Amino acid sequence: MLCTRCRHFDAAPDGIICDHCAAAGVAPVAPPHGQGAWLRSPVGLGRAVAVLLGAVIAADLLAIWADLAMYDVVGDIVDGDSSAAVQDRAEKADSLFAAAGLVQTAALLSAAVVFLVWFHRVRVNAEVFDPFGHRKKRGWAVGGWLVPIVNLWFPRRIALDIWDASSPWNTPRSHGLVNGWWAAWVISVVAGRYASTAYRRAETAPEIERAAGQVLFADAADVVAGVLAILFVLTLTRMQDTKARSGPGAPVPVG
């Protein structure tokens, strides 16, 4: 790991500061959270997360197809069409809608588990790059997603700290991708909750039609969030892999 004082040279094998700081008589500084950190490659997990997020996007596209079918047939019922053909389409649309929801849930749960493992790993790796640049303990890398309310901002804060620590030495990268992904994710989550509630409470055909439109919007937002999540995962994984292979940062100037 890097020296916890200067953060430019490798620490001595039996310590947490480098030989340069030790020779200068500089006292070591323990990481703020009191836990050691070791680099572990995030590449395999990152690729697995990207594949599973791709499955989530595919499930969302299936759901969008089901949403459109439901919206179309309920629109015909609202317009006064009560023929046997419309009733048959309504039954098929309802079955497709329910099946798409199950597929979405299975894909999302699978991706979420692997994503949390990957997110915790890149958080630990980030401590090696910068032991002091993290506002939350590493346990929040998982817990921050599971605690209601705080999961709307804790993971973003942790992701930004990881992103900054994983950026090239002395060259911070823009937060645009992280913020874009997070905004899309929050929109999709909030829209999904409102749409699910509206659909459960809908009783009349007009109410079902409006609820189907809300579900359609939520699923489309989830597709956008999924695409940005894949870009975030692959970019951060590549950043950490490149930084780990580059070795310690450039030496600081000696006065």
From TrEMBL:
Keywords: Membrane, Transmembrane, Transmembrane helix. The keyword Ribosomal protein does not apply. InterPro entries: DUF4328. It comes from the Bacteria. Residues 87-238 form the DUF4328 domain. This is DUF4328 domain-containing protein. The chain crosses the membrane at residues 48-66, 96-119, 139-156, 176-195, 216-236. It comes from Streptomyces spongiae. Pfam families: DUF4328.
